[in-house]
Amino acid sequence: MEVPAAGRVFDVKLISKFDGSSQPVVEWLEKLELVCKLCGVADIGSVLPLRLSAGAFAVCQQLSDEDRRDVKKVKEALLAAFALDRFIAYLRRLATFAGGISDGFLCSTFVAGFTEHVQDVLREGVRMDDLTIGQLLARARAVMAHESAVCERDKDLAAEVQASGRGVAVRNQAVRCCACGGANHFARECPTRNGTMMSA
Question: Does pTM surpass 0.85?
């Protein structure tokens, strides 16, 4: 039996509170939408601020009144503030397995994995000690995107040079038989070898 949405009783405590550190923000937002959908709540914007606390509530409070009413804007603000990059989360997980490594050491180890040119670009301009792991990752991605574009351009240029030089090399180079040392045939097609096999 369908009960009109206005007559439904909805327990807000079905949705866990989100403070920004208790669970991943993407997972929490999906649970919020699922519970609201199952309970027939059409306006998620009226429920969302009620379940925010601590840092997450502070992020919501920093939005303008108009943006606070827009669920999409609130979600974007929460995602921008609390969504960890999967790569950073993986690095931190590895660090906890190693007994808890500081962010500074993690940054240094991260940068050491790049080529010398990329390491130099990452280290110049800004002190690495002042960057968080997230900022360093964003900087590394920007450098690598630029490097891949330059490498792609250089690779195309090198391919053109190789293609123009390849025709000359093929004309001058002859295929040699390993059985008789003759030119332009392989051992399995060697006339001297086939002649001895046929006479036997």
Answer: no
